[in-house]
């Protein structure tokens, strides 16, 4: 398990870039990244930096009130090599916040089965523990912890 301390949004941005550089997409389904950790621990801030690194247009707000946001990335120009090789075409960033979902059944109603079986989707889920029973067992897990006002631990 890798662990980093982020002392600023800039550090979180750097970690997001490193994360993307080391990410190898699933071959035959979506790639799912579960984000775990308390309120204010930096989950949304991290996805904002992922979106920025992928060249997603428009600002990534916390999706808590809309639950799901999608950002189609048409042939993004500057993907790290592993991602470029893994996607070979269009990539859709999907940002889900499960905070207001009661269970995995709620996520199913949002069209989870189609989303998760589509290879072009790179899915980040905040509060992944709330829908844990529906996520692929081998999904990537990132834990966020509040250390102090400006410091977050990501493992
Ligand atoms: N090093 C850091 N990395 C990321 N965010 C930081 C850092 N230092 C301070 N922050 C601040 O912490 C807050 C993190 O909020 P964020 O919305 O990302 O948390 P969250 O985990 O998504 O919470 P929620 O569970 O409510 O969705 C932001 O206001 C951000 O500016
Ligand atoms: Mg959030």
Automatic annotation (TrEMBL):
GO terms for biological process, alphabetical: tRNA threonylcarbamoyladenosine modification
An example Gene Ontology molecular-function term: ATP binding
Keywords: ATP-binding, Cytoplasm, Magnesium, Metal-binding, Nucleotide-binding, tRNA processing
Keyword tRNA processing attached: yes
InterPro entries documented for this protein: P-loop_NTPase (IPR027417), T6A_TsaE (IPR003442)
Compartment list: Cytoplasm
The keyword Oxidoreductase is assigned to this record: no
PANTHER family from the UniProt entry: TRNA THREONYLCARBAMOYLADENOSINE BIOSYNTHESIS PROTEIN TSAE
Entry protein name: tRNA threonylcarbamoyladenosine biosynthesis protein TsaE
Organism name: Candidatus Taylorbacteria bacterium RIFCSPLOWO2_01_FULL_48_100
């Amino acid at each position: 398990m890798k662990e980093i301390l982020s002392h600023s949004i800039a550090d979180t941005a750097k970690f997001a870039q490193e994360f993307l550089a080391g990410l190898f997409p699933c071959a035959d389904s979506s790639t799912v990244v579960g984000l775990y950790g308390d309120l204010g621990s930096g989950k949304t801030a991290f996805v904002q930096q992922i979106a920025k690194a992928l060249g997603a247009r428009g600002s990534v707000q916390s999706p808590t009130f809309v639950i799901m946001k999608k950002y189609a990335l048409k042939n993004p120009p500057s993907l790290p090599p592993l991602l470029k090789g893994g996607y070979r075409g269009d990539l859709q960033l999907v940002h889900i916040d499960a905070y207001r979902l009661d269970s995995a059944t709620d996520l199913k109603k949002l069209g989870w089965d189609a989303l998760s079986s589509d290879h072009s989707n790179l899915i980040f889920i905040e509060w992944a523990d709330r829908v844990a029973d529906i996520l692929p067992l081998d999904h990537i897990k990132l834990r966020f912890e509040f250390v102090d006002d400006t410091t977050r631990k990501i493992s």
